[in-house]
Amino acid sequence: MIRLILLLAAACIMANGCPNIISKSTWSTRKTNCKAALKTPVPWVVIHHTVTPTCTSRAACTTQLRNIQDYHTRTNKWCDVGYNFLIGNDGNIYEGRGWTKMGAHAKGSNHKSIGIAFIGDFQSK
């Protein structure tokens, strides 16, 4: 798994560079109260979509991220946004819980996976 990640990272860098990873502190001012650590490396990566409108600019993605965070914390009563990382159609990767905190994205598998969500609804696309 680590070899595959390194190979993909090298290919990404050689092909015009990698996308930015926007830190959580850039798009959210909320303090997280998530305490469950994620023991890495994990064996799985779980890919999701947010079933929300998509975003094509950093400003639109920031708004969408805050909406997702509000839904996850207020409606679902989670400690923060459920995904470790989210990807916008603006070409950026946005940090959710990051590499070290357990997500809330795949019940029963959160302790052994990183959750990555594409911002948007891809049920018919």
Q: What are the defining features of this structure?
A:
five-stranded mixed sheet, alpha/beta, 28% helix, 3 helices, globular
Number of helices: 3
- Low-pLDDT stretches are none
* Spatial order of strands in the largest sheet: 1-4-3-5-2
Distance between the termini: 29 Å
The multimeric state of the shown protein is single chain
Find the structural class using helix and strand composition: alpha/beta
- The count of DSSP E runs of length 2 or more, i.e. the number of strands, is 5
What percentage of the residues does DSSP assign to strands (E)? 15-25%
Q: Compute the average pLDDT.
A: 89
Fraction of helical residues: 25-40%
* Shape summary: globular
Helix-strand sequence: HEHEHEEE
Radius of gyration, Cα only, in angstroms? 14 Å
Largest sheet: 5 strands, mixed
Task: Report what the structure shows.
This protein has a 5-stranded mixed beta sheet with strand order 1-4-3-5-2. The protein is of the alpha/beta class. 28% of the residues lie in helices and 16% in strands. The chain is globular.
Provide a brief overview of the structure.
The chain is α/β, with parallel strands linked by helices and 125 residues long. Helix content is 28%, strand content 16%.
Q: What is the topology?
A:
Layout: H1 2-14, E1 21-22, H2 24-27, E2 44-49, H3 58-75, E3 85-87, E4 93-95, E5 113-118
Parallel strand pairs: 1-4, 2-5, 3-5
Antiparallel strand pairs: 3-4
